[in-house]
Amino acid sequence: MTWPDAMGSAVPPIVITENGASFPEPETTTTEIDDSDRIDYLNDHLGAVFDAKSAGVRIDGYTVWSLLDNFEWADGWSQRFGLVHVDMHTGSRTPKVSYRWYRDLIAAARS
Prior knowledge:
Elements: H1 3-7, E1 14-19, H2 36-54, E2 59-64, E3 84-86, E4 93-95, H3 97-110
Parallel strand pairs: 1-2
Antiparallel strand pairs: 3-4
């Protein structure tokens, strides 16, 4: 049974506006952070998106949460969400391994 059969013929389009996971990471870094847990999380969730599309679900958009680390009211800077590390003291930005992974995934999908 495909998704449209299970849900009826009028399944509305879906836009996933934020998908990601937070992990504790260092406040400062001079090297790329290996955030393989984030990659695993995103890979699993994107797999589910592709499975849904294959089953006939119309998915019009997907956005990773978030490009940059940001201050969160509940956790401050203790949890990091971004594909790019932000040093809260200097504002310097360092791409993480997940940044390269996601960039390469998008490039492969476009070719």
